[in-house]
Design goal:
InterPro entries: Cyt_P450 (IPR001128), Cyt_P450_E_grp-I (IPR002401), Cyt_P450_sf (IPR036396), Cytochrome_P450_fung (IPR050364). The protein has 527 residues and is of the alpha+beta class. It contains 18 helices and eight strands. It has one domain: Cytochrome p450 (Orthogonal Bundle), CATH 1.10.630. A four-stranded mixed sheet has the order 1-2-6-3. The chain has a two-stranded antiparallel ribbon with strand order 4-5. Strand 4 and strand 5 form a beta hairpin.
Length: 527
């Protein structure tokens, strides 16, 4: 009898060992990829920094569609325009879920970009899409964008050394008005510096590599806190996020109690003038509006600061845009959205900034709801699909000639805004993939595009942007165009440039228009 038990136990041990050794192996019919090792798969080959660049290297070696293994999980990388269109666009019902992420679930109660396609997600996306539609962005939200852009160039004229703060304030202020009905008159305002800090902490906390692969190695969930510092950090971040956006809700309620109701998403939800399919808990309400501000502001400010750095290093690009601006506006008025058709090069500059370094260089993963085949490659249920935006944009095979060169002229024949190309069936003519693809395309894309246009056009109308000079030698300081903070949302590392006002007439116009803008924007300030 004892020998029978020993035999059975031996069989179980051998079975377990065999299964463990198969973990991490690339199954037959999966897309090709780097060689794996037992258990880890390719985990040991994934760099802690520069992962987005490694994807281009792997794509050149293993093909435009390849796979990575981490334990039993599969990730499929789509370095291929047609595959993105065929899978994420045409089969969006299969590929519009997000990864099941244990750590994100601790921190967030249902962010638009992070959670599965469920009823709450669909409702929030519907609210966002209707509130930030082209008609809204070009209508009632247009004056807000134009006014805040005027304040931006005034502040840059007065304290140009604080341009990082001024850009962030402008964008957080616009999004704060849209979501909560509150603007940030200065960077020190709670709605600017406070929101900026908590947004940065949030995205840093969910950056790949900030915590172990808990979902691929589920036993990690059950380790005690003493052995799980990642769990403590996630819980602390949850408290921080809940506290900040909970405070935003208290400020909102205090305003409304005074009878001060404003034309924003928060007031519409509370007044019932924005229809929703199901009620939101207080935390869901706070997280939803908080995520709108955080995601929209963090990405757009990083993109704008990236573009400014490239512009400073390419004065001929500025001159080409300024020739259009001078012809359309002169020096006695700022550019307006109605000038869009007269200023095609502004759109080229925006597109090239988003192409050469998308601030989310690897778009947040899609998850397969069911088994599927693409060509002769198997994509198993629950596998993740990545859009490697930076790698796509730096691949000549994807249609980007001389991809390392900053060249807005490449988009001369793309006169429309990004949403038009993202929605087109002509996938080979798409401008870039910085906003994602399929049913997970950024729902704030219209506001982001317009905000960048207003800021870029206004900056180049007002200033020549030049590299800083060394005070001792008088020589231009080197601008490292590839210096970015390695995070989920990549901000450029601090750099120095000068904003040289183009003429006294421009400065007089700035001060006059900014005074009018400030008077208009006072209605959104916290009282």
């Amino acid at each position: 009898m004892a020998s029978l038990w020993i035999y059975a136990l031996s069989i179980l041990i051998l079975y377990g060992a065999s299964k463990l050794l198969r973990m991490g192996a690339r199954e037959q019919s999966l897309p090709p990829g780097p060689p794996t090792v037992p258990v880890l798969g390719n985990l040991h080959q994934i760099p802690l920094t520069g992962f987005y660049k490694k994807l281009l290297e792997w794509g050149e070696k293993y093909g435009s569609i390849f796979s990575l293994k981490v334990a039993s999980g599969t990730t499929v990388i789509l370095l291929d325009r047609m595959a993105i269109h065929q899978l994420l666009e045409k089969k969006g019902s299969i590929y519009s879920d997000r990864p099941r992420d244990h750590v994100v679930s601790i921190i967030d109660s249902g962010g638009l970009a992070l959670w599965d396609k469920n009823a709450h997600w669909m409702m929030q996306r519907k609210v966002t899409s209707s509130s930030l539609s082209p008609s809204q962005v070009e209508g009632k939200l247009r004056q807000i964008q134009e006014a805040e852009s005027a304040i931006l160039i005034r502040d840059l004229g007065l304290t140009p050394q604080r341009f990082f703060d001024h850009v962030k304030r402008t964008i957080f202020s616009v999004n704060g008005i849209v979501a909560w009905g509150f603007r940030a008159p200065t960077y020190e305002s709670w709605w600017a510096s406070g929101a900026c800090d908590v947004s940065d902490e949030f995205f840093s906390g969910i950056t790949p590599g900030a915590y172990p692969p808990v979902d691929q190695f589920p036993f990690l969930k059950y380790l005690p806190d003493l052995m799980s510092p990642w769990r403590i950090r996630a819980q602390q971040l949850k408290k921080r996020v809940d506290s900040f956006w909970g405070d935003a809700r208290r400020r909102l309620d205090k305003r409304r109690q005074k009878g001060d109701k404003r034309d924003c998403i928060a007031d519409k939800l509370l007044d019932g003038t924005q229809p929703i399919d199901m009620p939101l808990t207080d935390r869901q309400f706070n997280d939803f509006l908080g995520f709108l501000v955080a995601a929209g502001s963090d990405t757009t400010s990083a993109t704008t600061l990236t573009s400014i750095r490239y512009l400073a290093g390419h004065p001929h690009v500025q001159k080409k845009a300024q020739a259009e601006l001078d012809a359309a506006c002169g020096a006695d008025r700022l550019p307006l959205w109605s000038d869009y058709g007269k200023l095609p090069y502004i759109n080229c500059i925006i597109k090239e900034g988003m192409r050469i370094h998308p601030v989310v260089p690897v778009v947040f993963p899609h998850r397969a709801r069911q088994d599927n085949w693409y060509q002769d490659m198997f994509i198993p249920r629950d596998s993740l699909l990545l859009i490697p935006a930076w790698a796509l944009h730096h691949s000549e095979a994807c249609g980007y000639k001389d991809p390392e060169r900053y060249n807005p002229d490449r988009f001369i024949h793309h006169p429309k805004l990004a949403p038009s190309y993202a929605a087109s069936a002509e996938y080979m003519n798409r401008d870039h993939y910085a906003y994602g693809a399929g049913r997970r395309l950024c729902p704030g894309i219209h506001l982001a595009e317009h905000m960048q246009w207003h800021i870029t056009a206004t900056l180049l109308w007002a200033f020549d942007i030049v590299p800083a000079t060394d005070p001792e030698t008088g020589e231009e300081e080197h601008l490292d165009l590839d210096a970015f903070r390695d995070s989920l949302v990549q901000h450029p590392m601090p750099y120095k440039v000068h904003f040289k006002i183009r003429s006294q007439a421009h400065m007089e116009t700035i001060m006059r228009v900014a005074k009018e803008a400030e008077s208009y924007l006072q209605q959104f300030e916290e009282k």
